[in-house]
Amino acid sequence: MAKKTKNPEFKAVISDIVLITLGSFIYAIGANAILAHHDFITGGLYGAALLTARITGTFTPGLWYLIFNIPLLYISWKTFSRRFFVYTTYGILIQTFFLEILKLNYPIQDQLYAAIASGVITGVGCGVILRSRGSGGGLDVVALFLLRKWNLGVGKFYLIFNTALFVFLAARYTPDILISSIILSFTSSILIEQVLTLSNARKIVYILSEHYERIVKVITLEMKMGATLINVRGAYSGHDKQMVMTITNNLQMKKLEDVVFAEDPDALFIAENSFNVIGSSFGKRKMY
Q: What is the DSSP code string of 95-145?
């Protein structure tokens, strides 16, 4: 009996839909349960929808969010893949749906606590959505365009945009609301970046040792990790040396350090953070 062939693209589509749906649900909880009940200067397109609903007294923030997304759908159609356009359309519709049906009010009275809580929840929601190959619409489309064009981080873009918004509206709000809004924006931006780099974050380690061959053997055979030898030359001695480069995660970091110094107590061990390692056996490159 022939084995059923696996369809990785089908699994990827299911994964994308689950991420967009789950992220939209989480975002709607933070927006409706906390954000909508405080007078924060809310950034992004949902903030514009919330402000428009308050000023005009017409429609709900969810419906205004849907209306404001129409021109951005055109941009996604022209700029990104058809798959991204379909996912983003679904993301906008499901997010509008959750924003409309979830009538929640988590009674946080303190503005600071409300800013932090809503920033965490909405940031996690946005980050989960952006881990898919689509988006939830709004400024996500612009952020992903800038990420692809100039490698500007999504969270950084939101922080820059919202900071400019705060400066523009500063005279119209009290200092307490302004500061709380900045905290909300900063918290949300940090959480977006953290969720996006959750599985791609790695440690790049450089090792200088006279016993590099033994260290490489332990790294490759015992720890089952890759390693690369780089030709270097000592600036003072002028001697040629071999430097070991390897990539690991936080869980294996301490073990790698123990291995290196067990083989050579005089080794030089340099570790630096990398927030996006893709290719080979690591994360796959995401195409929008």
A: HHHHHHH---------HHHHHHHHHHHHHHHHHHHHTSSS--STHHHHHHH
Q: How far is CA 29 from CA 35, 159, 258, 265, in A?
A: 9, 21, 44, 52
Give the global pTM. 0.72
Give the residues of the chain that fall short of pLDDT 50.
Answer: 1-5
- Is 118:35 a contact under the CB 8 Å cutoff? yes
CB 106 within 8 A of CB 33: yes
What is the CA 236 to chain-centroid distance, rounded? 43
Q: What tokens appear for 69 in the block?
A: 């997304």
Residues 6+ apart with CB under 8 A from 4: none
Query: Could you report the per-residue pLDDT of 171-205, keeping only the tens digit for each?
Result: 778 888 888 988 998 899 889 888 887 766 688 99
106, burial (CB in 10 Å: exposed 0-12, middle 13-18, buried 19+): middle
Q: How far apart are CA 185 and CA 143, in angstroms?
A: 15
What does each C-alpha distance from 43 to 40, 51, 139, 161, 163 come to in angstroms?
A: 9, 10, 9, 8, 9
Residues in the chain: 288
CATH architecture of 202-274: 2-Layer Sandwich (3.30)
Whole-number Å distance between alpha carbons of 106 and 274: 37
In this predicted structure, what is the pLDDT of residue 277? 65
| Phi/psi at 51 (5° precision) | -65, -40
Please report the pLDDT score of residue 58 as a whole number.
86
Residue 58 DSSP SS3: coil
Would you say 279 and 285 are in contact if contact means Cβ atoms under 8 Å apart? Answer: yes
What secondary structure does DSSP assign to 179-239, as a single string?
Answer: HHHHHHHHHHHHHHHHHHTTTT-EEEEEEE-TTHHHHHHIIIIIS----EEEEEE-TTT--
**For the chain, where do the domains classified as CATH 3.30.70.120 start and end?**
202-274
